[in-house]
């Protein structure tokens, strides 16, 4: 029997519905509407974590994810990887798994989850291309309707939000539904495996720090970051020595 | 397109404040139907719809105006607010018979790409990473509060800029270029990026210190060299491969890594 | 100061925008931008808006295609800076430069928007058969033609572009 969240299967289904709604709305907010950055991993992961029952667990996932995708940018028609879909699905899978396993979100769970779901970032980019082609059909229908004298032709605009919403909602719900499997893996991991997975998560953090330096696209950035890091370490050591 | 006779007879036409507010709200959905052929065209035509409804009472005239706005358009989604506002002002003059309809189109084409460049540089590549790094650096001290640091820093600038851009676009029309030149978007970008680089360095230092204290210089060195090595290799290997490599190396080294 | 040179010629309907300034300038280490376009050269608003977006320290010039050809051909006054990025709106402008005697070792197709007789060969590039023929003529005379919006994408070479054109 796979481990389930405290409330059993009904609880799991409820969490899936919540994750679907939040993940879907984030997909819409990411590009099609508002762009208040609510769909960034730094915000989406803790907010969805809170909705599912563990805000801090969500934050533990959200910060390094944010840093990994800090440099991703949508320039014209060139699309970045979809950090929001990954953050939504990862939170939707790892937070319920942590609750079911009784461990909460910890480094080993986060590392397995990330290894399993990371390709979603690239998949999300393909999905975005697909929905752009669907939007192309909406655009053609708007042009035809305007040519036939329909003053409301451009109102098809909002229909472009449906596909991103539906796709992300489905993926996030699915992530909740497979979370018991992750909980099972976590519960069955021995001391050695946990110890190794802990190392994996910390290595990901090091990559995240490197990505954040790279995200500042300026030729002076690496030098400024190096000076700042050296200064911070020196300050910490001096304070450490005299305290 | 011919100028509607009624417009000439009525003199200057204006869009109401309510109409302007609706145009602004709809401009928040500029990219809802982003598509390869027209890019933000549907969103633009939809956003300016409430203004066109007031300026062209005849449904046929209005549909022709909507059709004009379904031409190709692309810009940065925030900076576009200035162009949406400016286009409303120009449409008022078109409806009043002062300008040919073509002038709206050339205004959009001339300003879209350069404003996009300004917005990409300032919002996407300077403000967003810097605000997110400020949150990541403060996270060990304030926990979940760091989410509010990010949203507060980012949106206080973003929302103020978006409203200001729309207003200045509408009030100044083609003069919007001079107004934006004085707003120092381009010159504050390098400063913000420098702040971002300082924060990124502090974040790296935090990882190194967390690994190295207390008295574990080997761990600190390992993390430091991983960060430096990854930063050097990232442009070539990409994030995905770097993450999987890190997961594997971490797995092999285990908790020795921190 | 290195001598003025051309780093890359790019066809981009949007001329100066984010991909150009944020992705290509640093990748090429370009010190200048030359926009060769009749429409932009004649439009004060377009010129001042472009100038607004150019980062400090980057030399910037807007010329009509003919004037740009005069400047860039051997014996002309040359590009504005070392490693200049030359931006053109249409494929036909590249051929006009070439026919006027300007050497184009590498031609990048960035953004060519949809038009009635154009077919889509990449997410941001639509071409008609005359444009494809012009590209083939340039390639036959030694120009390396590649298609990509930003430098981090893998470039599509002319044979692939032709294959995609035939597929549509």
Description:
- Chain A has helices spanning 8-31, 41-52, 55-68, 83-101, 107-117, 119-147, 162-177, 179-188, 191-215, 221-242.
- Chain A is mainly α.
- Chain A has one domain (8-189).
- The longest helix of chain A has 29 residues, at 119-147.
- With 258 residues, chain B is mostly helical.
- Chain B folds into two domains: 7-183, no CATH class; 184-258.
- In chain B, helix 3 (41-47) packs antiparallel against helix 5, helix 7 runs antiparallel to helix 8 and helix 7 (102-142) packs parallel to helix 10.
- Chain B starts with a helix and ends in a 5-residue tail after the last helix.
- The model of chain B has no long low-confidence stretch (mean pLDDT 93).
- With 168 residues, chain C is α/β, with parallel strands linked by helices.
- A seven-stranded mixed β-sheet of chain C has the order 3-2-4-1-5-8-9. Chain C has a two-stranded antiparallel ribbon with strand order 6-7.
- The longest helix of chain C is centred in the last third of the chain and has 12 residues, at 129-140.
- Chain C starts with 5 loop residues before the first strand and ends with a helix.
- Chains in contact: A-B, A-C, B-C.
- Chains A and B meet through helix 2, helix 3, helix 5, helix 6 and helix 9 of A and helix 3, helix 4, helix 5, helix 7 and helix 8 of B.
How is the topology of this model organized?
The complex is a heterotrimer of chains A (243), B (258) and C (168).
Chain A: H1 8-31, H2 41-52, H3 55-68, H4 83-101, H5 107-117, H6 119-147, H7 162-177, H8 179-188, H9 191-215, H10 221-242
Chain B: H1 5-10, H2 17-27, H3 41-47, H4 49-55, H5 59-69, H6 80-95, H7 102-142, H8 145-172, H9 176-181, H10 185-212, H11 217-253
Helix pairs in contact in B: 2-3, 2-4, 2-6, 3-5, 4-5, 6-7, 6-8, 7-8, 7-10, 10-11
Chain C: E1 6-12, H1 18-28, E2 32-36, H2 38-42, H3 44-53, E3 59-63, H4 65-72, E4 84-88, H5 91-99, E5 106-111, E6 119-122, E7 125-127, H6 129-140, E8 144-147, E9 156-157, H7 158-167
Parallel strand pairs in C: 1-4, 1-5, 2-3, 2-4, 5-8
Antiparallel strand pairs in C: 6-7, 8-9
Helix pairs in contact in C: 4-5, 5-6
